[in-house]
Amino acid sequence: MITLIDGLSLGSIYALIALGYTMVYGIAKMLNFAHGDIIMVGAYAIYVAMSFANPNPVIALISSIIVCTLLGVFVEKFAYKPLRGASPLAVLITAIGVSYFLQSVAQIVFGSQPKPVSGWKLPKIEFLNQFGITTGAVVTLIAGILIMVALTLFINITRTGSAMLAVSEDKGAAKLMGINVNKIITITFAIGSALASFASMFYLLQIPNAEPTLGAMPGIKAFTAAVIGGIGSIPGAMLGGMVLGVIEKICLSIEVISPYTTAIEFSLLILILLVKPTGFLGRTTKEKV
After folding, report:
1. Does the residue 280 lie in any domain?
2. Number of domains comprising the chain
């Protein structure tokens, strides 16, 4: 039971990061490999906000959301927008370059050593402690589910969400319908980056240290979760994140196989791609030539 709760909690973090990948890919048809490093920037934003006198976690979270959202819009405008219509390889190389750039800037500004984020803990609940379940794990799981439900409703109910779906289906047709495609892509990056700030908050609840490479491995694993669930599918990102989180915690709880946890996770990705290349909830699309 404890392993399951911890796995679903970790899966919620992966799912939030994976949602950023899957939204950008579903709408802009590009892989933003710098997304994991936006989480790192969000963690440092929380660290800076919590370093002031009388630190307030709420203000720190709001600061992180603002910084991550602005950074996502900035990266899209100056790094990816000029490459609209370029080859996927050019966009991929740019994304990797942006990732290393953000890591290097963070190392120059904050140094290479981890920075402890003090005061970023939740009070313990005696009822949960009796079962060995941490308050952070429960809060992460519940908040993650609520955020993902809210995003799903936003996509399916609002006009902006409908415009996103239209752009995802056919950019040319969406433009003919009067939809500002560039604006929708920018909004997509903003939402994905805001979700990354929540992921950084939940990550710091488990490991209260900010470092330049903080978002590297979670970003890769979240991308794996997005592919497992079906990249481009919001429910798929949720499912893939939960599955990966539970598998990781189960592997870590078994001493014999715990050193091979990462290898097992990526082996699962290979297996699923061999059996179902589109992922659990992905769909096959036909391209006109």
Report:
1. no
2. 1
